[in-house]
Design goal:
The complex is a heterodimer.
Chain A lengths: L2 H8 L4 E7 L5 H13 L5 E4 L10 H12 L4 H14 L4 E5 L1 H7 L1 H10 L4 E4 L8 H10 L2 E2 L2 E2 L5 H10 L4 E4 L15 H11 L4 E4 L5 H9 L4 E4 L1 H9 L4 H18 L5 H6 L1
Helix pairs in contact in A: 2-4, 2-12, 3-11, 5-6, 6-7, 10-12, 11-12
Chain B lengths: L5 E2 L2 E5 L5 H14 L3 H15 L5 E3 L1 H7 L2 E6 L9 H14 L4 E6 L3 H13 L2 E7 H6 L1 H9 L3 E5 L6 H15 L3 E3 L10 H24 L5 E5 L4 H7 L9 E7 L12 H4 L1 E5 L1 E6 L24 H9 L2 E6 L1 H15 L5 H12 L9 E6 L7 H7 L8
Classes of the chains: A alpha/beta, B alpha/beta.
The complex binds pyridoxal-5'-phosphate (PLP).
The site of pyridoxal-5'-phosphate (PLP) has 21 residues of chain B, from helix 5, helix 10 and helix 14.
């Protein structure tokens, strides 16, 4: 069993997966915040390395990337960060990265270093399933899991190939668009999760736009194995620029609320899906 | 679509999954319509009656005397809209129409591609949004005004340096949320497959005509063909006519800005390294960690840290050569050329002319060179005035 399988099978509810940009707003504060998220009950972490041109991301995460870059975060420092987190508590860590950063570091070498730092899986935001092998082969060699994205406009034939190449979980994008908070949960979520569940046994985690405990609860009821919350969490950093204590409190409170809102897995959840 | 869109090791389509269906749809439509008689009839009518093709090949006599060899200019500046960009926007706009799309988006640097997109948006009655870096909105105000007059919405992009790269990022983001009804009319021979191929295809008439015209006028092929390279669409358009003529040298001229020893330039092929940006594996200006570098160039249309993947391939195979000229040389040439030929060249195109000026005394007098005059310089007079105010000069 890989770390995700054992994590999902132990849990009697959807996994809580907060996302952070490593080093936002600074290395040290970011470290405190991610540790706080672990303490608040995160089951898995999704961590991003900041990139100058994050085309898959909306304004909130773009700004976080810029803050982290200003703070001098490099891929090497990001690996150091991951080592510090896994030393604090062994927790599965999924990495989100833009391809150029891997290409410059050397994809194979990076993935090996990431594995050594305690990482679990890698997702390249701008690499589609058609070029999956560029990442899947070196990831396998390094002993890492792969995560690929599925979106509401992905046809079944591609979903099957995505499921095939995925060894970790399928990162299911809840809507057509970039990351960012949304008022209401996209109505594309349920049909997409249902479609994936029919096509594959691979775990399905849903992200993009999940902004409230209520959204997380709905996604879990739709049958998701995990909920990924990015912009809402990153926004707590943006909202209290000079007050790390407040960032920490808000993130802790929010994650506790989301966790409490996640319904137990059971027959009701299944029929709902 | 996997095997396609590669130029040797370059190209590809490195984009978020959500964009794949749209790219596949565009690729399929392009394959279907590129040889379709109705499509060709419509496109050719637009090229001739609306845009003004074929453009002349003009023997620039006084400029030739100045540099000491024969220079012909491919007059893309005479096209409707004032630049080669219209070839591509008419082609892609018509494709969008044949696909049944009703909305267009585009990115723009200098504003020429935005303007050319706004033109076809108006012509075809399509709702048009143009993403433009905030810096460029400020420095290319006349074009912003024109786009608005033509009914397009101009969306200033504040992120990054407020230039073309940021406009592309934002257009891609918008597209991911609107892929179902919106056609992204990409402006240069870069970006994810199938764009480099499509843009090249619609710019090929430049090279085809130039080759034919040179044979007619000079009785032989040119010795060299030169063009400026931003993303590389005007250059690939004219180069494409001569790729199979190995005796014709191809020279792409990049923006040397304040000089290659500084970081204030956009000479991607001259100084860049290979990486992945905006959907393509190509040369990039980046730091050692893979973060994309800010660029700077007097010419907004060249101010981009990437380059079309086919140029990366032409560089690697040695078929084309890439050089750069600096802002100051460009300004010198702008004044020289304007007064000699009675043509205000776009600052982008002036890069190619400036490189020819640099060849003065270096090339044999029987050399025949063709420079692609990709656009006209009206849009740039404020920039020129800002750097070298006429009011402060004794005339
Ligand atoms: C007149 C002109 N020439 C050249 C360019 C550079 O683009 P490309 O390299 O795609 O031809 C531009 C871009 O805006 C332009 O306006």
């Amino acid at each position: 069993m890989n770390p995700y399988q054992s994590c999902f099978s132990k849990l009697n509810r959807a996994a809580l997966i907060p996302f952070f940009v490593i080093g936002d707003p600074s290395y040290d504060i970011s470290l405190q915040l991610v540790k706080a998220a672990v303490d608040a009950g995160a089951d898995i972490l999704e961590l991003g390395i900041p990139f100058s041109d994050p085309v898959a991301d909306g304004p909130t995460i773009q700004k976080a990337d810029l803050r982290a870059l200003k703070a001098g975060i490099t891929p090497a420092k990001a690996l150091q960060f991951i080592r510090e987190i896994t030393a604090y508590k062994p927790i599965p860590i999924g990495l989100l990265v833009y391809y150029n950063l891997l290409v410059q570091y050397g994809t194979e070498r990076f993935l090996q270093d990431f594995k050594k730092a305690g990482g679990t899986s890698v997702l390249v935001a701008d690499l589609s399933i058609d070029d999956a092998d560029e990442i899947a082969i070196p990831a396998k060699k390094a002993g890492l899991e792969t995560v690929f994205m599925a979106t509401p406009n992905t046809p079944d034939e591609r979903l099957r190939r995505i499921a095939e190449k995925t060894t970790g979980f399928i990162y299911t994008v809840s809507l057509l668009g970039t990351t960012g908070e949304r008022q209401a949960l996209s109505n594309a979520v349920r049909p997409l999760v249902a479609r994936l569940k029919r096509l594959t046994d691979k775990p399905v985690c849903v992200g993009f736009g999940i902004s409230t405990p209520q959204h997380a609860c709905e996604v879990a009821r739709a049958g998701a194995d995990g909920v990924i919350i990015g912009s809402r969490i990153v926004k707590f950093i943006e909202e209290a620029p000079d007050n790390p204590e407040k960032m920490r409190e808000n993130i802790t409170r929010f994650l506790s609320e989301v966790r409490a809102a996640l319904p137990p897995k059971g027959p009701t959840a299944k029929t709902d899906a | 679509m996997k095997s396609k869109g590669r130029f040797g090791p370059f190209g590809g389509y490195y984009v978020p999954e959500v964009l794949i269906p749209a790219l596949e749809e565009i690729e399929a439509a392009f394959e279907q319509f590129r040889e379709d008689p109705n499509f060709l009839k419509d496109l050719n009518a637009l090229y001739t009656d609306y845009a003004g093709r074929p453009t002349p090949l003009y023997h620039a006599r006084r400029f030739s005397e100045e540099v000491g060899f024969t220079v012909y200019l491919k007059r893309e500046d005479l096209l409707h809209g004032g630049a080669h960009k219209i070839n591509n926007t008419l082609g892609q706009g018509l494709l969008a129409r044949y696909m049944g799309k009703t909305k267009l988006i585009a990115e723009t640097g200098a504003g020429q591609h935005g303007l050319a997109t706004a033109i076809v948006g108006a012509l075809f009655g399509m709702e048009t949004k143009i993403f433009m870096g905030a810096t460029d909105v400020a420095r290319q105000n006349v074009n912003v005004h024109k786009m608005k007059l033509l009914g397009a919405e101009v969306i200033p992009v504040e992120g990054g340096t407020g230039t073309l790269k940021d406009a592309i990022n934002e257009a891609l983001r918008y597209w991911t949320a609107h892929v179902e009804d919106t056609f992204y009319l990409f402006g240069t021979a870069g970006g994810p497959h199938p764009y480099p191929t499509i843009v090249r295809h619609f710019q090929e008439p430049i090279g085809r005509e130039a080759r034919q015209q040179c044979l007619e006028k000079a009785g032989r092929l040119p010795d060299l063909v030169t063009a400026c390279v931003g993303g590389g669409s005007n250059a690939i358009g004219i180069f494409s006519g001569f790729l199979n003529d190995p005796q014709v040298q191809l020279v792409g001229v990049e923006g040397g800005g304040k000089g290659l020893h500084t970081t204030q330039h956009c000479a991607t092929l001259c100084t860049g390294t290979v990486g992945v940006l905006h959907g393509a594996r190509t040369y990039l200006l980046q730091d050692e960690n893979g973060q994309i570098r800010d660029t700077e160039c007097i010419s907004a249309g060249l101010d981009y840290p990437g380059v079309g993947p086919e140029h990366a391939y032409l560089k690697e195979t040695g078929r084309a050569r890439y050089v750069s000229v600096c802002d100051e040389e460009v300004l010198d040439t702008f004044f020289l050329f304007s007064r000699m030929e009675g043509i205000l060249p776009a600052l982008e195109s002036t890069h190619a002319l400036a490189w020819l000026v640099r060849q003065k005394g270096l090339l044999p007098p029987d050399t025949i060179a063709i420079a692609n005059l990709s656009g006209r310089g009206d849009k740039d007079i404020d920039i020129v005035e800002h750097h070298r105010p006429l009011t402060a000069r004794s005339l």
